[in-house]
Amino acid sequence: MGVIFVFALLPSRYTPQAAGSRQPVSVQILVLGDIGRSPRMQYHAISVAKHGGHVDLIGYNESSLHPDLSNSANVRVRALAPPPAALRTKSLPFLVTGPLKVLWQVGTLIWMLAYQAPAAKWLLVQNPPSIPTLAIAMLVSILRNTQLVIDWHNYGWTILAGTKGPNHPFVEISKVYECVMGQVAPTVNITVTAAMAAQLKEEPYKVTAPIVTLHDRPAAIFKPVKAPSERRAFLERLPETKDVAASIMSGHMKLLVSSTSWTPDEDFSLFLDALVRYAEMEAEHPILAIITGRGPQKAHYEEQIKLLQTQGKLPNIQILTAWLSMEDYAALLSCADLGICLHMSSSGVDLPMKVVDMFGAGLPVAAYSKYASFGELVKENENGCGFETSSELAAILVRLCSSSGADELRRLRIGAEKEGSLRWDEEWDRVLAPLFGLSS
Ligand SMILES: *[C@@H]1O[C@H](CO)[C@@H](O)[C@H](O)[C@H]1NC(C)=O
Ligand SMILES: CC(=O)N[C@H]1CO[C@H](CO)[C@@H](O)[C@@H]1O
């Protein structure tokens, strides 16, 4: 009796289609985060759908989604219930809220992956976050006869070490957990860089499943601006630039753009410091720096910016923070002079998506460079410049934002455009479509 009861509770299993059947390839795509702020997982979903596959895209429904997703009949978005507000506030210690939040996530994930979404052939999971995602994904893949694919964007434990300190007890636990999951869970691995693929094969991960590298590529929305008139029209329309559009168009004022989720793994004081040094050098061109994005440390840095301004340390320099729609953000990148990236890879082997998008928009970058995979994307003297300190960044700004740097900037722009012309669709069709059994 008890056995029958347990069987009745088990989720339905995926049954492979007979050869030659027309049943579409089904993929569950899971990100334990805001779907709207997970560009790569949205692109995966769009790509599967384009090839006629069926997608259940599972995650938190917070920011607005990529327009191609909302319009696709092949994609069903399934929203996970966010943890109760009491677990998200910082009033209780992490040692209490952390485990409770994980329990909540275990429950909602099992309910969604195993019961609400239909059984699928594939389950594609973004890592990190790894806890509890990887364990639940593995459990569900066994129960439902689904093949598990982990898309390694980074490592959860290195991010945790960055926010909680390397000696926090959870760091070692999550490292062991992540390594074990990598070894036993997936059918296939996807990594964002070749450096990460190489690392996953070594100690302590020792992943034995096949690993494919799928570099991030800009989505179609990021494209270089065609005509100066188009650039002018946008600069005159955007509230952040409309008053200085003429000065930017004439090349007098330089427009810098950075985007961030304002987390501790990006040290914006480096950028602010570089701007202060730039101002001290009395460079010929004024700068407008627009920093887009939302996140925990935004208010802290806004205060710092205000302080520097009232202290008179930023003459000729304007720094604005903004939150733009995807369309405006893409247009802003294509209209700017230089992109700034402060991504400090916690794992040393991931790459910043924002630089990929900047290249898609034909925008050269100055990017923090002290990590192993940096050279897989930014090529010195070709499409951008790397820096490790604020004085190095200040030197780059002085060089590229001067009249004598115009030629170099133009050359980098051509290189950025070239790198950005390699698109997501081509890369995905080549690397992943065959893996999922989707033809073009
Ligand atoms: C996601 O949120 C949007 C806007 O709040 C809403 O219109 C949409 O129905 C939600 N989707 C799901 C799957 O809950
Ligand atoms: C070490 C390892 O897992 N190598 C695999 C990488 O992926 C290719 C293609 O999927 C496999 O053939 C390798 O065995």
From TrEMBL:
One of its GO terms (molecular function) is chitobiosyldiphosphodolichol beta-mannosyltransferase activity. Pathway: Protein modification; protein glycosylation. Keywords: Endoplasmic reticulum, Glycosyltransferase, Membrane, Transferase, Transmembrane, Transmembrane helix. Pfam families: Glyco_trans_1_4. It is found in: Endoplasmic reticulum membrane. Its main location: endoplasmic reticulum. Its EC number is 2.4.1.142. Signal peptide: none annotated. The keyword Membrane applies. One of its GO terms (cellular component) is endoplasmic reticulum membrane. This is Chitobiosyldiphosphodolichol beta-mannosyltransferase. It comes from the Eukaryota. InterPro entries: ALG1-like (IPR026051). It is a single-pass membrane protein. Participates in the formation of the lipid-linked precursor oligosaccharide for N-glycosylation. Involved in assembling the dolichol-pyrophosphate-GlcNAc(2)-Man(5) intermediate on the cytoplasmic surface of the ER.
